[in-house]
UniProtKB/TrEMBL annotation:
Record-linked InterPro entries: Cro/C1-type_HTH (IPR001387), Lambda_DNA-bd_dom_sf (IPR010982)
Region (Disordered): 1-38
Name of the protein described by the UniProt record: Unannotated protein
CDD domains assigned to the protein according to its UniProt record, in alphabetical order: HTH_XRE (cd00093)
Cleavable signal peptide: none
Regions crossing the membrane: none
One Pfam family this sequence matches: HTH_3
SMART domains: HTH_XRE
Natural source organism: freshwater metagenome
Length: 167
């Protein structure tokens, strides 16, 4: 809980005193929440986030299913499309070597549509749940879907997820 509360305050740029005042609590109490010495109730957490101009949102967790292509190579498909923060969706990243072995250590600028397309191709074909969750944004994947080159087994397995997102 403490990383969420302190991250919210850092993002807002407000002092502990100002957040405490806006949330109707004391600065020492806020400090104890931020340092993990106490845990706020859900109502208090919502109030603290609101004091920082933020809100609590329930986001469905991704569940992945392992599939195998015609040669028996595993690949993974989530139950729904992942969403990334804007910062992560457009970051410059270095994909792990076990995923992007042909261009290991080459940075990929996800803000560049062509580089993002190539990164998504590699991650969907070679990555596991951690890599898909970290590098693939569902909305940007939908945008790239008509142009993305994937082996037919992978495309066929992902197509229902894409179709469901568009309904």
């Amino acid at each position: 809980m403490q990383p969420l509360i302190s991250a919210a305050r850092r993002t807002s740029g407000l002092s502990q005193s100002e957040v405490a005042r806006r949330a109707g609590t004391s600065r020492p109490t806020l400090s104890s929440y931020e340092h993990g010495h106490r845990s706020p109730t859900l109502e208090t957490l919502i109030r603290l986030l609101a004091a920082n101009g933020q809100q609590l949102e329930a986001i469905p967790m991704l569940t992945f299913t392992e599939h195998h292509d015609s040669r028996g190579k595993p690949f993974f498909v989530p139950d729904h499309l992942p969403r990334l923060s804007l910062r992560d969706a457009f970051a410059t990243v270095v994909l792990p070597t076990h995923v992007d072995w042909s261009a290991s250590s080459a940075p990929r600028a996800l803000a560049d549509p062509q580089q993002r397309l190539l990164a998504y191709q590699v991650v969907l074909a070679e990555g596991g749940p951690d890599e898909i969750s970290a590098y693939v944004d569902g909305a940007l994947l939908i945008d790239a879907w008509p142009e993305i080159f994937l082996p037919k087994d992978i495309r066929r397995a992902w197509q229902p997820i894409i179709d469901r997102a568009l309904v």
